[in-house]
Specification:
Length: 334
């Protein structure tokens, strides 16, 4: 099995099995929508599926990668495969007309024809309706693979003509590897990959000074809460309130605070999970040692309660003072 196929099976085990079963039972349909977030491997899986269907030496439901057809797909020179992506903002009607005329042209090689439409949610009304007619009555053996990050934006009439293949989020370990390959530290990679599953968003957060400052402020507060209420309130007034002005910033900061207490529970329970703040392990071990599960549970409840108060537009200073008192209660008997 090629390294690329192994990588795809690790990234999308369910989807890959689904497509291999379709091939094995000789049930290749005429239209699929591959629906998943950016970075989930939709295009790579689409090309894998085309190769699987046309490979001359398939073994155990995996294309050989070395036959004439596999090589031509890899080099982008396979005549029975066409690919389209948006021209500017949209996929235009002329692009679809050209696709249909190519697909219905005689002189193609024998066998099934395939077309891949990237960002299929960007078909405008006229191009979507033109494609719809072709989806309903394709000439000969044709399979459409529509790729999208926004399934809901595809016309329901097109959705109903296609089999919906849902791609799962990027597994945490793969996302972290990808982030570290971009030069992001293990600790920061761990934090951002718990905040978002999008590689692009994760990279931008990891390189955002404002986010790094927010992360430091949250961890400073956790350290202060451990000491006493005065330290905690000092950090709230000096660092927290000036740093997080917008509602969305406070919401994210409360989420980051909740992650810290989840980490402390994981450390206490000796779970082998990836910590959100691996750089805080020593400090979290000490907090875990002096906390009961009940106290930690109450502290997490207090943070969730503060999040609800934020949605109710409670005064932010008051909300944070109340939260500090509630978090502090966990330590009064230590």
């Amino acid at each position: 099995m090629s390294g690329n196929t192994e990588k795809l099976i690790k990234l999308q085990p369910v989807v890959m099995k689904q497509l291999q079963t379709i091939f094995e039972k000789n049930r290749t349909g005429h239209a699929y929508i591959f629906d998943g977030a950016k970075g989930t491997g939709k295009k790579e899986v689409a090309l894998f599926f085309v190769k699987l269907c046309v490979c001359l030496n398939v073994s155990k439901n995996v294309p050989c990668e070395t036959c004439r057809n596999c090589k031509r797909i890899n080099s982008g020179n396979f005549p029975n495969l066409l690919q389209i992506e948006p021209d500017g903002q949209f996929i235009k009607i002329d692009q679809i007309r050209e696709l249909i005329s190519e697909m219905t042209r005689t002189g193609f090689e024998e066998g099934r024809k395939f077309y891949i439409i990237q960002h299929a949610d960007r078909l405008n009304n006229s191009s979507a309706n033109t494609l719809l007619k072709f989806l309903e009555e394709p000439e000969g053996e044709v399979t459409a693979l529509l790729l999208t990050e926004a399934y809901q934006s595809i016309l329901p009439t097109i959705q109903s003509r296609c089999q919906h293949v849902k791609f799962s989020d990027i597994p945490l370990d793969i996302l972290m590897d990808q982030l570290q390959a971009q030069g992001i530290s293990y600790s920061m990679a761990s934090t951002v990959s718990h905040v978002t599953n999008s590689l692009e968003t994760a990279i931008s957060l990891a390189n955002d000074e404002q986010f790094a400052h927010g992360r430091r402020t949250v961890l400073k507060l956790v350290e202060a809460i451990k000491k006493n209420i005065h330290e905690a309130l000092f950090i709230v007034y000096e660092d927290w309130l000036p740093s997080f002005k917008e509602k969305s910033e406070i919401e994210q900061a409360l989420d980051l605070l909740l992650f810290a207490y989840r980490d402390i529970v994981a450390v206490k329970a000796d779970l082998k999970s990836v910590l959100v703040y691996p750089d805080m392990l020593a400090s979290f071990r000490e907090i875990a040692l002096h906390s009961t599960y009940e106290q930690l549970s109450n502290q997490m409840q207090a943070i969730l309660h503060a999040r609800q108060n934020l949605q109710r537009n409670m005064n932010r200073t008051l909300m944070m003072e109340q939260l500090m008192l509630n978090l502090q209660e966990g330590y009064t008997f230590v």
